[in-house]
């Protein structure tokens, strides 16, 4: 009896593994001359059918530098007003009319960026964070997303001045 229980249990495990493995295989479609098709309910992953995500609009944080961004030279970034250790990676995109920069956020807050002054010599970007709602539990982590800020004109040779405001 003891061996029968082991035999039945092993048979059930093998049947389950075999059935689960068969779900991921391709089926043949006889109507199309034997071409392989994905089983119903699955998602095709061919490169042409995978939708590309829309480009992130200015202000929406992401954790990778947007494709096509160009680093702003370090001598054109003034980060003296930022706290020690605050990131100051700055990139341009879209012909210099978008600034992508590394910001800091934590817990329930989200990084914000705004161009508060644009002159012929410099662009001042104010970095801030949204406030957490009162009574809401938040994690105590720090994140460093890239945020985008739109400029009225291409950055060109202007200096990027970074400053930080209290959470809003």
Automatic annotation (TrEMBL):
<feature type="region of interest" description="Disordered">
    <location>
        <begin position="30"/>
        <end position="76"/>
    </location>
</feature>
<feature type="compositionally biased region" description="Low complexity">
    <location>
        <begin position="36"/>
        <end position="49"/>
    </location>
</feature>
<feature type="signal peptide">
    <location>
        <begin position="1"/>
        <end position="21"/>
    </location>
</feature>
<keyword id="KW-0732">Signal</keyword>
<feature type="compositionally biased region" description="Pro residues">
    <location>
        <begin position="50"/>
        <end position="60"/>
    </location>
</feature>
<protein>
    <recommendedName>
        <fullName>Lipoprotein</fullName>
    </recommendedName>
</protein>
């Amino acid at each position: 009896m003891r061996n029968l229980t082991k035999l039945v249990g092993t048979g059930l495990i093998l049947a389950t593994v075999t059935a689960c493995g068969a779900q991921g295989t391709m089926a043949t479609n006889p109507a199309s001359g034997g071409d392989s098709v994905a089983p119903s309910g699955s998602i095709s992953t061919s490169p042409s059918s995978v939708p590309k995500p829309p480009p992130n609009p200015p202000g929406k944080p992401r954790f990778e530098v947007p494709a096509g961004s160009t680093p702003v030279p370090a001598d054109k970034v003034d980060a003296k007003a930022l706290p020690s250790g605050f990131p100051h990676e700055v990139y341009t995109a879209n012909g210099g009319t978008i600034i992508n920069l590394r910001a800091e956020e934590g817990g329930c807050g989200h990084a914000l960026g705004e161009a508060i002054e644009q002159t012929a010599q410099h662009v001042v970007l104010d970095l801030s964070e949204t406030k957490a709602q009162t009574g809401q539990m938040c994690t105590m982590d720090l994140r460093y997303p890239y945020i985008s800020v739109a400029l009225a004109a291409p950055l060109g040779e202007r200096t990027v001045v970074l400053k930080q405001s209290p959470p809003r």
